[in-house]
Design goal:
The protein is α/β, with parallel strands linked by helices and 375 residues long. The protein has 2 domains: 113 residues, Alpha-Beta Complex (Aspartate Aminotransferase, domain 1), CATH 3.90.1150.10; 249 residues, 3-Layer(aba) Sandwich (Aspartate Aminotransferase, domain 2). 37% of the residues lie in helices and 14% in strands. It is built from 12 helices and 12 strands. The strands form 3 sheets. Strands 2-8-7-6-5-3-4 form a 7-stranded mixed sheet, with helices on both faces. A 3-stranded antiparallel sheet has the order 9-12-11, with helices on one face. The chain has a two-stranded parallel sheet with strand order 1-10. Strand 11 and strand 12 form a beta hairpin. It is globular.
């Protein structure tokens, strides 16, 4: 990552392909594989291995908290963002008179728990205009009945980055009872976070953080802990799970800790601990300084080919994601795959994800194949 030598050392698989699909699946550094092997050796200790497992959880909590600018006690883990959002729904226990705002650039995990709820609240959709979310379009959706506003800092769909401060200020002003939940899955490890004053921060772990499946970071600041404590069964999140009165009452830990309802996925935690420390060691700022000019190259190249990027603010507010639509995306994707260039192709859309391990040569290959494929 960042230099040819460290890229070859840490990501040898990239010698075999040109990879622009980190927004779906990252290529983890070798240290993540080593961490998984350490988990295996610790697991072979049997019950004694749990001493090492739980130390990894606390070490991972510490680095995760730094990455999202919270205290370790305000951070916990579950298995995926879908689990986190469903647990968030239990904490809120919204009723038909309540209102939730979601966006049409959000991933389904954060948008659908409110639609499938038995006591379904009124769900309002903040719709993007020309690929971006505008606060002026949000304000009419907010009122005193709004209990939750759910957004993604960076959209999985087109790479649009939310203008956080104007958004936050509008919600606090117009919907004083609303909590703000933000999905940073497509931001954490790739762009600096300016959303750490949200009431709930959620991130999957197998994308820009460079870890593996089976993990999710949940951050809930202390000020929101009482309101965002889950009402879920389990044991790991309970204070009295093995006390004599355990079948008469369940005393749930508050806030983020309540989202870890069962035995942690220790293998994913080992991987995440190693991956976050790797990203932290490189520096998210350094990653952005390396990758953002490549984003600009891709953006300019797409425009030169007549392919309009779906997020208009990318050159001035870059994220790792660019997306475009074309009548023949299937053919374009086939041409790219033929040259071992990996992007995301879905529903008439090509999504290109530019990471810290990408290079100018990667961009050149991508644009060269696109030029031929588009013709």
């Amino acid at each position: 990552m960042l230099t040819p030598d460290t890229r070859r050392r840490d990501f040898p698989a990239l010698d075999l392909m040109t990879y622009f699909n980190t927004a779906a699946e990252s290529i983890p550094p070798l240290c993540v594989g080593e961490a998984l092997q350490t988990y295996w050796h610790d697991k072979l200790r049997g019950m004694k291995g749990r001493d090492f497992h739980f130390k990894q959880v606390e070490d991972c909590r510490e680095v995760a908290a730094r990455m999202i600018s919270l205290k370790p006690a305000e951070v916990s883990f579950c298995s995926c963002s879908s689990e986190a959002y469903n647990l968030l729904a239990t904490a809120l226990n919204l009723q038909p008179a309540d209102e939730v705002v979601v966006t049409d650039l959000d991933f389904p995990a954060g948008a659908t728990p409110w639609i499938t709820s038995v006591t379904r609240p009124q769900t309002r959709v903040w719709k993007a205009a020309n690929g971006e979310l505008r606060v002026d379009d949000l304000v009419p959706l907010l009122n005193e009945r709004t209990q939750l506003v759910q957004v993604s800092l960076v959209s999985f769909y087109n790479g649009h980055r939310l203008a956080w401060a104007p958004f936050r200020d509008a919600v606090r002003r117009v919907a004083p009872n609303a909590l703000i939940s933000v999905d940073v899955t497509q931001a954490l490890g790739r762009v600096g976070l300016d959303c750490t004053d949200a009431d709930c921060v959620i991130s999957s772990t197998h994308k820009w953080t460079l870890a593996v499946h089976g993990g999710c970071i949940v951050g809930i600041p202390e000020r929101a802990a009482a309101r965002l404590t889950t009402h879920a069964g389990g044991w790991f999140h309970l204070r009295n799970a093995f006390e004599a009165d355990r079948f008469q009452r369940a005393e749930t830990k508050a806030g983020a800790a309540s989202f870890s309802v069962g035995m942690p996925n220790f293998a994913a935690i080992y991987a995440l601990n190693a991956a976050l420390r790797y990203v932290e060691g490189v520096g998210v700022g350094a990653i952005a300084r390396h990758a953002d000019p490549l984003v600009a190259q891709v953006h300019a190249g797409l425009q030169a080919l007549g392919l309009k990027p779906m997020a208009p603010a990318q050159p001035t507010n870059p994220t790792g994601i660019l997306a475009f639509q074309h009548p023949n995306t299937a053919g374009i994707n086939t041409a790219l795959e033929r040259e071992n260039i990996h992007v995301m192709h879905h529903a008439g859309r090509i999504r290109v994800a530019v990471a810290g391990y990408n290079t100018a040569e990667d961009v050149g290959r991508l644009l060269a194949v696109l030029a031929t494929a588009v013709k």
